[in-house]
Specification:
alpha/beta, Glutaredoxin, 3 domains, three-stranded parallel β-sheet, 10 strands, 45% helix, elongated
Length: 336
């Protein structure tokens, strides 16, 4: 509806403005330049223009108001096509129903609808600029999946895509190797644990030591990007000023220093890597070894629980021994 309003507004402005001295508003010359794209003329049209602008639309209903609105859109497109004709920019229209196969081949609608399933938690971007596409190494009608902090994207295979294919791929790859906890999606991210735990790293990006530690985390993530079992959750304390004291009390750590640990999501029990001081941060190799110990279960949040239980049992045994000794002493007294 908003897009329709913009088209109507454009026609109204063009028809109502008077030409002033030194400023001429273009008027439609009556020549048809906007082409209805089909499978037959698709390749021919692509070769004809340096840049092709596509208007993808649903079938026009028999309602007179809807038909009138569509005609206004066509007039605006024709006028724009007329103005930009000398720059080799073409304008085409695609009917989603009449050219369903071609519409799928062009993918933007499927991409747009797939994005609705994940926003605002996962960001979707589309570019219609050749320079930007070239910079990103994007191919025509290709969808690339960028994982945070990774150098190279992953192209979704088997194009052209349907909405279902894009959604399925994103769901399979939506847990990055390293991701930042954001206030707007912190609950959703926290619930997305692996086997009941999160590997959590605290580092202030604005702090020199925190920045250095974050770069080490990125290196570990890049080296292990193909490991589906690894997902490190980075928290910048500056993003959550009201939670710093709570986290320090709960996890018994100092958040003025970089920290990394494994946290149980059910009871907040945690184990943290020993980092002697800020001047002796772990190397990427040392951090990777620690992560491997976590993933293998060698380091886990249940270790201290079992120690505590054993300690309680030992205390109970000691108490029972004391009671037995007391009873024996009383028996000796009675015999005497």
């Amino acid at each position: 509806m908003k897009r329709t309003h913009l088209f109507v507004l454009g026609v109204y402005l063009l028809s109502s403005c008077r030409a002033e001295e030194g400023l001429n508003f273009p008027t439609y010359d009556g020549k048809d330049r906007v082409v209805s794209l089909s499978e037959k003329n698709f390749k021919q049209i692509l070769k004809k223009y340096d840049l092709l602008c596509l208007y993808y639309h649903e079938p026009v209903s028999s309602d007179k108001v809807a038909q009138k609105q569509f005609q206004l859109k066509e007039i605006v497109l024709e006028l724009v096509a007329q103005v930009l004709e000398h720059k080799d920019i073409g304008f085409v229209m695609v009917d989603a129903k009449k050219e369903a196969k071609l519409a799928k081949k062009l993918d933007y609608k499927a991409f747009e609808e797939a994005a609705e399933h994940f926003q605002p938690y996962i960001k979707f971007f589309a570019t219609f600029d050749k320079g930007v596409a070239k910079k990103l190494s994007l191919k025509m009608n290709e969808v690339d999946f960028f994982e945070p902090f990774m150098d190279d994207p992953m192209a979704i295979p088997d194009k052209p895509y349907t909405e279902e294919e894009i959604v399925e791929f994103v769901k399979e790859h939506q847990r990055p190797t390293l991701r930042r906890l954001r206030p707007e999606d912190m609950f959703e991210t926290w619930e997305d644990d692996l086997n009941g735990i999160h590997i959590v790293a605290f580092a202030e990006k604005s702090d020199p030591d925190g920045y250095e530690f974050l770069e080490i985390l990125k290196q570990v993530a890049r080296d292990n990007t193909d490991n589906p079992e690894l997902s490190i959750l980075w928290i910048d304390p500056d993003d959550f000023p009201l939670l710093v004291a709570y986290w320090e009390k709960t996890f018994k750590i100092d958040l003025f220093r970089p920290q990394i640990g494994v946290v149980n999501v059910t009871d907040a029990d945690s184990v943290w890597m020993e980092i002697p001081d800020d001047d002796d941060l772990p190397t990427a190799e040392e951090l990777e070894d620690w992560v491997e110990d976590v993933l293998s279960g060698k380091i886990n949040t249940e270790d201290d629980d079992s120690d505590g239980e054993d300690g309680e049992d030992e205390d109970d045994e000691d108490d029972s021994d004391d009671e037995d000794n007391d009873d024996s002493d009383e028996d000796e007294d009675e015999d005497e």
